[in-house]
Automatic annotation (TrEMBL), chain A:
Keyword Cytoplasm: no
Record-annotated Lipoyl-binding domain positions: 28-110
Coiled-coil intervals: none
Residues of the signal peptide: none
Annotated GO CC locations: cytosol; glycine cleavage complex
Organism, scientific name: freshwater metagenome
Record's keyword terms, sorted: Lipoyl
Protein name (record): Unannotated protein
PROSITE patterns, sorted: BIOTINYL_LIPOYL
Automatic annotation (TrEMBL), chain B:
A GO CC term attached to the entry: cytosol
SUPFAM superfamilies referenced in this protein's UniProt entry, alphabetically: Aminomethyltransferase beta-barrel domain (SSF101790), Folate-binding domain (SSF103025)
Transferase is among the record's keywords: yes
Domain (Aminomethyltransferase C-terminal): residue spans on this chain: 283-355
Pfam families tied to this protein: GCV_T, GCV_T_C
Molecular-function GO term, any one: transaminase activity
Enzyme Commission number, as recorded: 2.1.2.10
Keyword Cell cycle tagged: no
Catalytically driven reaction(s): N(6)-[(R)-S(8)-aminomethyldihydrolipoyl]-L-lysyl-[protein] + (6S)-5,6,7,8-tetrahydrofolate = N(6)-[(R)-dihydrolipoyl]-L-lysyl-[protein] + (6R)-5,10-methylene-5,6,7,8-tetrahydrofolate + NH4(+)
Protein name (Swiss-Prot/TrEMBL): aminomethyltransferase
Family: Belongs to the GcvT family.
Annotated ranges, domain GCVT N-terminal: 14-261
Amino acid sequence: MADASYPADLLYHPEHDWARIDSADAGVATFGITWFAQDALGEVVFFDPPAVGATLKAGASYAEVESVKAVSEVIAPLSGEVIEVNGALGDAPEAINDDPYGAGWMVKVRLADPSEADALLDVAAYETLLG
Amino acid sequence: MPVVTDSAARRTSLHDRHVAAGAKLVPFAGWEMPVQYAGIRQEHEAVRATAGIFDVSHMGQIETRGPQALELLQLLISNDIAAIPLGGAQYGVLCREDGGIIDDLFTYRLDEERFLTVTNASNHAKDFDWFAVHAEGFDAEVLDVADDFAMVAVQGPQARALLAPLADAPLPARFTVASLTMACEPALVCGTGYTGEDGVEILCAPDVAGRIWDAVVAAGAQPAGLGARDTLRLEVCYHLYGNDLMETCGPIEAGLGWCCREATGFLGSEAVAAVRDAGPSERLVAFQLTGPGIARQGNPVLGGGEVTSGTLSPTLGVAVGMAYVPAARAHVGEPLEIDVRGTVRTAVVVEKPFYRGSAA
């Protein structure tokens, strides 16, 4: 696992999830879990994604991620409909540890209400929350 | 998901070593214990391939001594205590009168009239009370000596080779015990373990445990935490009390009939004999998932039964576990469906154990 990092171009949910708003289409975002979340979980061995077309609700669980030891729910930072899931995590869930903001992305979502993003934390606020 | 530490939890004499090694510490049975250092998988693989060292100082010890020490233990423990040779070690269970398992434990015969029994941390106080209550009327003394000992396990195919230069005498063979010095410190070394690999468990005074730990780590053992200890034991189908063993279940159901000698008349022997004769209604089986997912403790088995332990096996790369199922379904090849938090996952009953290590 790489050292702790929290990219400045992401928005953060206090449950340790991130959202990256698509630079070309503000109505689309990619979700994943933060470095802190994957570090607390330990080595990820299984990711159970939602189906494409599933409806996600901000603040609610949309998937499960399992380490050798434990199961954790993944919380949606924003509401919307799943338009793509990261199928590569089926065979290589360790990408969630190795590259949580890149190859470890989980879903791409058509946002129901892009203004919900205003409620998310910027990197400074999230790092303050981590203490 | 912050790591919670309980300020009331006890710390072992190796706490400073764990912190220095970057361990993640978690509350466990009233203790603050390392769950992992480098990562569960890496530690697991080190134990399977070379050697790992575990702090198991949370485990308890009860000494039983006196002219009727053997008779008392014969009453309490399911196995045949008279069959333990001097310097021998034996596994057994402690049963209630109705056969329910109070604990599973190893007993070492230190002398003709002196025995040391190692208890699970979560059961130690309960076990000691059980020993003390039943010692009434016996010419034997039972002593809670848990505070006298730190305990480390050194396990793996290279554990003995790595320890031999640190010891002043040959290491004890499997299921035997020897008093010797380890890294110049007095220790009781036992040829036992909980990983399926060859190796020993070392009991010593808490104030010298750090020096032994340092010497073994310097010799090349990978510090390993409770996380790896759990995946290692599950791959070889060793029971974990509180998961696979509980007071509401007996040894025959758990597959521990081999360590019950009803002829000795131990407490619970009549109940155990009745279940052995009639056949149990449920049995603990080993299963492997045949599709995606990981079954965990508490997941129901469709048609009856429950998963008691489950994980992804680091050695095999598949999800494995143990579950109590109706006896009629407890045979190899039986397909199972397990409700994993609302999703039905498919599994199949397989032979125990999942893996055979260097101890087999």
